Amino acid sequence: MIKYIVTRTIAMIPTFLLLTVFGFLLIELPPGDYVTSYIRAQAAQGNTSAADQEASMRAQYGLDQPIVVRYGLWLSRFVRGDFGDSFEFRRPATEIIGSRLGVTLTISICAFLISWGIGIPLGIYSATHQYSRTDNFLTTVTFVGLGIPDFLLGLLLLVTVWMLTGEVLTGMNSSAYASAPWSVGKVLDFLKHLWIPVTAVVITGTAWIMRVMRGNLLDQLGRPYVTALRARGLPERVVIYKHAVRNALHPLVMSLGQTLAWLISGFTIISLVLDLPTVQSIYLRAMLQQDVYLGGTILILIGVLILIGTLLADILLAWLDPRIRLY
Amino acid sequence: MRKRISIVLVISVVTMLLLAACGGAPAPAAAPAEQAAPPASTGGKYNEAPMLAEKVAAGELPPVDERLPAAPLVIEPVEEVGQYGGVWRMVDSQNDNGWLRQTIWVEPMLKWNRDMSGMRPNLLESFTWNDDATVLTTKFREGIKWSDGEPLTVDDFLFWWNDIILDPAAGQSPPTGAAVGGQPMQVEKVDDYTLTFTFAASNPLFLDYMSRGSYSSSVYVVPAHYLEQYHPKYNSAVTDMTELLNRYNATSRMQYADMPTFAAWMVTDYVPGERVSLERNPYYWKVDTAGNQLPYIDRLEVQIPQGNAIELVLLKALAGELDMQTRDVDLKDVPLVIENADAGDYHVVMWNRGDYAWPWLIPMYDYPDEGIVDLMYTKEFRRALSYAINRDQLNEVVHLGLGQPRQFALSAESPEFLSDEGKKVYEEWSQSYAAYDPEQAKALLDGLGLKDVDGDGFRERADGTPLELIVDVPSDGDKLTIDAMDMIQQQWEEVGLKTTLNMAAWSVIDQRAAAGEIMIRAWGSAAAWGLISAPTVWTPIEGVTYSVGGQRIGQYYQSLGAEGVAPRAGSMLEKLQDAYTDLISTVDPAERDQKLLDAYRIHIDEGPITIGTVGEHPSPVIVKNNVHNVPETGIVASWDLGFPGTADPEQFFFR
Fold first, then answer.
1. Could you give the ipTM of this predicted complex?
2. I want to staple A121 with a disulfide (CB 3.0 to 4.6 A). Which of B8, B276, B321, B371 is the partner?
3. Considering the entire predicted model, what is its pTM?
């Protein structure tokens, strides 16, 4: 088991390096750079003298160096824990990401716990009561949940609340509290905004987990070993919970690997539509602006989380299923 | 089994309750609206806001009479003398707080009048020119203080000129107007409030250039006492200019809340990409007619949208959560916005975009295909392109009938058009070749020998080779331009001109423009103003992507022939460049206006040189019903005019 973990960890290093190369290339791929888009934005406002600053700005941001040199500098600083400053917001990329991590994780962890907490039990119930009235009802509901994109649900909730109460619950705080220090009032205001994105993400997420759980469990329940267990007279709950559910969990455990990265990269569109100050929205903005270090840092963060998540999922799976450890 | 399952259900129910707990929090009582308050009497000459009076009483601030200049600038309110207090909520969709800057940082040497009839003193108290406009003496307003209480003197301007612009380490070059014929101006300090500018040749437009929008002298006057600590010359611990330039560049300056300002509000909190909070500057140097120190409004809360600003502004406006919003109200949403005005307790003021076209079609005269360039230089060909466009239809379908079908011509409000002759020139120019006349278009094309010889329904060139118009259209952002171009493509094909739309990102199109690879470019909403605001849209004098005739033709003029592509000898482009050279050194304003009109006549006689479609859109401004002193007129599309800053937001107030 230890050997398994060590080999898997070492294998992550080349993957990580490749990730940085492709990440950096991807950001550099569009024509122009941050200075080009800056000057264009200035010119569109009529400020043509910004064009004179082109060379000095490139030097200021280090964009006058060849791409290989820039990649090398970036990586060497990266390893030392310096992720660079955002071009647009003249402060460290980590500070900007950090300031948005709280909101992002609050939404995503809330949504994750609730959707898994509801999805798995309902999936089990649905599978053990296949084609019952409840199962049919739940199946219908989940198909609707799967069919409607979360951002549309979010918008529907937003507009419904506006029509009922006259309040627009975009963002995470109303403007009265936006710059106020944290207080009971601000927390309540935060919760008042939080439920819209969480509900929207939960409805789609739950539907997916329920479908997967139901399908897998049904698959397991049809296996000969289940029949054998039942034939030996084991109680039904032991058959289902100790044996069938445990095996049915494999695909969900595998998908946990992706979930770690999803916590800061999921629901991007809903962030934009509901105006949530999340990591996702600043990530998109950094990419559009070619704000290399900010975008790059988030990209690497997502990549690393996928790597770690996959590792954890593999370990968990090996623990869950001894057969895996043989490989 | 049954018992087990019911436990599962219980777990589900509990989890759902958790979900409800996450969302079902009771609504907190609405934050108390800040009450508008009467000015606190200070016992001195001037009155001040209650929040500042408290600080004075606590000994944190000197009395208002000491904070104001001996003769503060008096601002005539739009409607009436206002009351202090309130928080102004707005949305700024610009990445670099551009619209916030246009709101609070329009504090140039001279400021446009609110009706754009001319300019009024602002930072400058007075100025005098010598006869041939080579020497300018300016008197700065005495006694203005930075928001930290330090005096603002001409040294703050000289720091910009000597230690930023002229210091090679900063990599800056003199802005438009500050150098004549490649020679930087000479600036001399007479006393703490007087500067003398000397130019290598006549430079009568200097003050106009220095007073554009929020990015000219408004940001050139910098707090030297603060910036010195970041300049290698004054602080040996500093090795490069990066920190200085971060604070100097207008687009990132707001991120440094500790940097003193002389604007009406100062930043107290800047959250990247999320919001900016501002508070009144206790040292602001303007008063109203009753001697109350401005601004009236205590604080600004500016939200930066994460996604599409137009949707967010619309929702927030409908819910009455915006106090005054100049930008990002889409024309197509106007009916909806007006319908909900009572519920949201606001009204809509229609300002003017002042745009000459949306979209604007720029034929490029530097395209690598000589045959195409020949056609571009042929006025009959351009006229055919213009006649083939059904502008009324465009207006009805794409612009909801709110624009004006017209030819490319500058804004009617531009000063040179205000005389009788000016009005005539404007009328003639803006309507020239703008009628929909496909028959005449066909006749003109036939006359040029452009006929369909192979029977595919499209015309070939006179030599029989295929003719295809390629229009570069920006694919990001501006949906209206794309819709309009789809119609124009169809209309051009109806007269037998094969048209292809090349949809690409702005950055790609810009690169193509710089390389001279574009045949015709479609630009979104565009505005310009005589000689002051983007003159290169009517005369190719700058190497920028929106230069009439092509970036490289403007570059040729700007680099004095060293780079770029020359306009054809004797062509209208060359005539326009020559006219411009003459214009900018003409000292007498009346004579200059006359020459300007003559230059515009080239556009009428040989036009259209660049093609307009539908312009002069109204620009909806959302104003809460308790916000007062907002003027009825404004022109927002050209940033050089400085709206909404030109409307004097410091005298807006809540009641």
1. 0.83
2. B8
3. 0.85
